[in-house]
């Protein structure tokens, strides 16, 4: 007999992943701080606000991936599935990006393949295209039916949706070293595009004349709505949530930019992590060019690397560092 829509399930896989990630975050942060102290450097700060955001990220992930929302999203209601996906796209990634300490973000994004991928994903057109294609793909009838029938596939699609959320927010938040966020007007325009283009699927949900997802044929047992009504509500929820969240964020960006202009505050302060990442990128490009030159001529290149800022060795920032990792000014 099939369990009812509100029958309690433990969701051991989801809880295990969340516990492992939480432990890895705390232990990784401690390891990086200890390594910085051994090198005679000051560890990056992990502020109280950032700790609360990180805790909030794990909390919203638990809400989205465990009972009862995950069960309703898997078998009973398209509206529940849409709400779950909205949480994983609109709430979880920004909380993670704004909550993790800068040294952890730098360590996670330091590998050259990851850095190259992020460098391309920061382009607004690329980000909009990926979010649009990915959002539509994971909501096709076949894939929704697949996630409804398998815990493993459901976990895979949840991970894909979270990744799409990171792609969406990457050009806006700008906390990843070497990935500079857009200017305020550019961020607002980008958020408008992201609120409109990927959400066109909601129009189909609202105006379709028959249910599109056999997996949710029993929606009346869970939420008291026929599948077609459930589908229409899912369309309205998706459209309104995307528009409200992204347009509100864009408006806040513009208001803060205006306030900073009036107060003569620099909107985009230059951070050491960005400079260090650009220097590392230049080193790799130069090394690649030197390898190509030596391969063609049979001799090795002795060209010196790019000039380094004054300070400690191995690309260490000048000591002492100003607050929040901003570069010192001269004059």
Q: List segments where confidence is low: pLDDT < 50 over at least 5 consecutive residues.
A: 299-331
How many DSSP E strands?
A: 0
Number of domains: 1
Query: What proportion of the residues form beta strands (DSSP E)?
Result: under 5%
Structural class per helix/strand content?
A: mainly alpha
Helix-strand string: HHHHHHHHHHHHHH
Q: Considering DSSP H and I runs of 4 or more, what fraction of the residues is helical?
A: 55-70%
Mean pLDDT score:
84
| Ends apart, CA distance between termini | 77 Å
The Cα radius of gyration reads: 23 Å
Number of helices: 14
Tell me about the largest β-sheet.
none
Overall body shape: globular
Keywords summarizing the entry:
single chain, 331 residues, mainly alpha, 68% helix, globular, disordered C terminus
Secondary-structure map:
Elements: H1 12-38, H2 48-65, H3 69-75, H4 78-99, H5 102-109, H6 112-121, H7 124-137, H8 141-149, H9 151-173, H10 184-196, H11 200-207, H12 219-223, H13 227-262, H14 272-297
Your description of this structure?
The protein has 331 residues and is mainly α. The chain has one domain. It is 68% helix and 0% strand. The chain contains 14 helices and no strands. It has helices spanning 12-38, 48-65, 69-75, 78-99, 102-109, 112-121, 124-137, 141-149, 151-173, 184-196, 200-207, 219-223, 227-262, 272-297. It is globular and about 60 Å long. The protein starts with 11 loop residues before the first helix and ends in a 34-residue tail after the last helix. Mean pLDDT is 84; it is low at 299-331.
């Amino acid at each position: 007999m099939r369990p009812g829509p509100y029958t309690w399930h433990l969701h051991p896989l989801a809880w295990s992943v969340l516990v492992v990630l939480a432990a890895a975050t705390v232990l990784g942060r401690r390891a990086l701080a200890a390594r910085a102290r051994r090198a005679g450097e000051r560890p990056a700060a992990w502020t109280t606000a950032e700790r609360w955001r990180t805790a909030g990220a794990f909390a919203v992930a638990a809400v989205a991936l465990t009972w009862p929302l995950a069960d309703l999203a898997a078998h009973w209601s398209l509206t529940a599935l849409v709400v779950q996906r909205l949480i994983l796209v609109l709430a979880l990634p920004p909380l993670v990006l704004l909550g993790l300490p800068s040294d952890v973000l730098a360590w996670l994004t330091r590998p050259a393949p990851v850095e190259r991928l992020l460098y391309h994903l920061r382009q607004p057109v690329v980000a909009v295209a990926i979010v649009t294609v990915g959002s539509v793909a994971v909501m096709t009838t076949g894939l929704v039916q697949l996630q409804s029938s398998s815990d493993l596939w459901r976990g895979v699609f949840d991970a894909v949706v979270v990744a799409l959320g990171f792609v969406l927010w990457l050009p806006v938040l700008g906390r990843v070293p070497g990935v500079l966020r857009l200017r305020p007007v550019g961020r607002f325009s980008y958020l408008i595009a992201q609120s409109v283009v990927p959400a066109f699927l909601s129009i189909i949900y609202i105006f379709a004349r028959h249910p599109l997802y056999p997996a949710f044929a029993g929606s009346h047992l869970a939420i008291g709505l026929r599948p077609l009504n459930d589908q229409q509500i899912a369309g309205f929820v998706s459209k309104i949530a995307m528009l409200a969240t992204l347009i509100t964020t864009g408006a806040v960006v513009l208001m803060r930019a205006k306030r900073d202009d009036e107060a003569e505050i620099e909107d985009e302060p230059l951070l050491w992590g960005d400079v260090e990442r650009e220097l590392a990128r230049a080193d790799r490009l130069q090394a690649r060019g030197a390898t190509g030159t030596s391969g063609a001529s049979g001799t090795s290149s002795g060209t010196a690397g790019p000039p380094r800022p004054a300070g400690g060795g191995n690309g260490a920032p000048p000591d002492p560092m100003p607050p929040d990792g901003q570069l010192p000014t001269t004059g």
